[in-house]
Amino acid sequence: METILVIFGGQSAEHDVSIITAINSIITPLILTKKYKVLPLYISKTGQWYCDKALSNIELFTSGKIDNFLIKSKPVSLKFNNGLEIELNRLHTKRLKVDLVFPAMHGTFGEDGDLMGLLEMSGVAYVGCGVSASAIAMNKVLAKQLALGCNIPVSKFLAFKTSDFKLKLTKVIKNINSRLKFPIFVKPAHLGSSIGISRVKNNDELKNALELAFYYDDLVIVEEEVANLIEVTLPIIGNDKLTPALLERPMLHQADFFDFETKYLKGGKKGAKTGSKGSQGYSEVPAKLEKSLYDAAQSLGLKVYQEFGLSGIARIDMLVDSKTNKVYFNEINPMPGSLYSHNFQKAGISNVLLVEKLLQLARERFKARSSVVTTFKTNYLKQF
Fold it and tell me: Which pTM does this prediction carry?
C-alpha cells in the first residue's frame, strides 16, 4: 500500500483555501479508494510542520480547535536521503517512508515552486507542475512575458517593483496614464485567489490600489482591461498527452471581478449571503459560447499549458473580447482550488478518478525525470 503525503496550509495569504482543497478534494477521495495510506501534513501559519490523521477532519479547522490541537502536538521532522521520510516525534520516534507527495499548497512557499524544489532534491514523486513551470506560472509578469515570446496574445500591461513605488510614485502614475487606458487592474504579481486585486477607474483610485497590491507583494502588475469582456477558464490535466475539462465562464458583470470575498465568501455573487460553499456555484459549465469561439479558447489554453511546460494539473484563465472574438491569455493557476473537481465531474471525471489520475501522472513524470543523468564524472579535483 503506497503512502501518500498531502501537504497543505503554509505561510501564505491563501492558507485557508489550501485547507479546503487538501481535505475536501484530495484527502477524502484518497481515503475513499482504500488503496493508500494517506498522511495529512499541515504547515501552520507560523511555519511548523505537523502530521496526524486528525488533521484530515475539516471540523478541526472550521471549529477553531486547531490552535489548541497544535499546542498539544509536536512538529514532525523530515528526512531527505534518496527519498523522503517523515519522523513523528512522539513517545517513541517513528519514521514513515513516503512514496508520493500530493501538494495542496496555494500561493507563497508552495504553489510558486518553493515546495517543488524541496521535493525535487529529496528524490520523491509529487503531483503537479515542476519548479520552473510553477515559478513562472505564479509570477504574472514572467508569465505575460513568456506568453509574448510564444506569440500568445495578452492584454497591455506594465510591471513595477517596490522601489519604483516608494521612490518614484509620481513617475509610476504618469507612466500608467500615458501607456494604459482606464479601467485597469492592479494586482500583486505572485498571489492567487484574487487577493490584493483592485479594478481602477481613475487616478483617485490608483494610489490606493498600488498601496494595497504592494502590501502583499514586492512586484505588481498593472493591466489594461479587455473591452466587452467575457472571462473563461480551462482546467487541464496531463503531462505530454493533455485532457482538458470543460471551458468555464464565471457569471459576473464586467464591472465586477473575482476578488477574494466574491470568490469564497459570497458564493460568487455581489451582495449574496456569506457562508455559501466556495467558488463553484456561479459559473457556466460548459461556457455557452459559439463553437468557433469555444474551440479557439480551448486551443489557446492547451497551447499555454504546452508552451509553459506545465504538468499534472493546471488551470488556464483567459479573457475574450466578445465583439472582436479575440482571446487573450490572462494567467495560470498551477494548483487550482479544490482541483476544480466540479468542472471535471461535469466532464465525466469523478473526484476519486481525478486524484488517482494525478497520482499516475506524478509517477510517470518522476520516472521520466529519474532517467535523466544529472551528475558528471571528471578528473577536475585531481589538479588541486
Answer: 0.90
- CATH number of the structural domain 229-370: 3.30.470.20
Contacts for 203-209: CB closer than 8 Å, 24+ residues apart? 203/173, 203/177, 206/173, 206/176, 207/169, 207/173
Helix, strand, coil % over all residues of the chain, rounded to 5: 40, 25, 35
Segments of the chain assigned E as strands: 2-9, 36-43, 49-51, 77-80, 84-88, 94-98, 100-103, 125-126, 157-161, 184-188, 198-200, 219-224, 229-238, 242-244, 249-250, 283-284, 312-321, 326-333
Does domain 2-126 sit in CATH 1.10.3720.10?
no
CATH class, 156-224 region: alpha beta
The pLDDT assigned to 277 comes to 42
- Residue pLDDT, tens place only, 248-293: 998 865 445 555 455 544 544 444 433 334 444 578 999 999 999 9
Q: Enumerate the domain spans of the chain.
A: 2-126, 156-224, 229-370
